[in-house]
Amino acid sequence: ILPLEDLDILILNAETLFPSVVNQWIKLYPNIPIVNTYGITETSDDLSHFIIKESITTETTPVGKRPIQNIEIHIVDPFLKRVPIGVTGEIIIAGQGVGRGYLNDKE
To answer: Do 39 and 67 touch, CB atoms closer than 8 A?
Structure first.
């Protein structure tokens, strides 16, 4: 176990953060919150953040309740129509963070 008394916050990105890992961290370092972020390569940045200060009791770890400023996140069906909450679909991202190489790309 590393001495982390100078660490104020732990920010994680790019990999799935499992609740079991969160719970181990909270047990060892209860005063150091985790920021779980979500982002994709094409946006060059994080899209959403979720601050974790206590154990997770769900099957998955949240990545945020809403996107950051100037970003839109939608879940759509194969026809690009938004799906209801809880329905599986494809994630699409819109906003200033989307890479220029994807601007006006028909795919």
So the answer is: no
